[in-house]
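Posting this for the archive.
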Amino acid sequence: MQTGLYYEDYEIGRKMVTRARTITETDIVQFGALTGDFNPMHFDAEYMKTHMMGQRIAHGMLSLSYAVGQAYQLGFMEKTILAFRGLEMKFSLPVVIGDTLHVELSIKEMTPSPRLGGGMVTMDVKIINQNGKSVQSGTWTVLVANKPTPATED
């Protein structure tokens, strides 16, 4: 299996874009069942008719969780991410059934962490809908493994 990017392979400013995914009612129902979050904002169409959003919306964490999966599918994390260390996200626009989202990542900061066997990579993250609007934005920080050193012959 292909290995992802090692810490030494990253560079500030590098950009990556995922493929898109359309949010379905099934996604919302399954996420609610998985998490136990049955907030009427996600499940009660009648309630939402009088809400400021006007219709049912997807869980914010559903969109964020899908974004992590979409980023993983790019392959750069395969077998090289040691830990997801932190995130900070702003939820700007609601996501509704039928919205199609993709993720734009840009390497913002790199900090070597030799004690941990790699380095911290902080990415600017934007989750973008089909209209080109950012529904969520923020940063993710991951601990990425250093490139293995070649074995020396004796």
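Residues 10-145 form a domain with the Thiol Ester Dehydrase; Chain A fold (CATH 3.10.129.10). The first strand starts at residue 15 and ends at 17.
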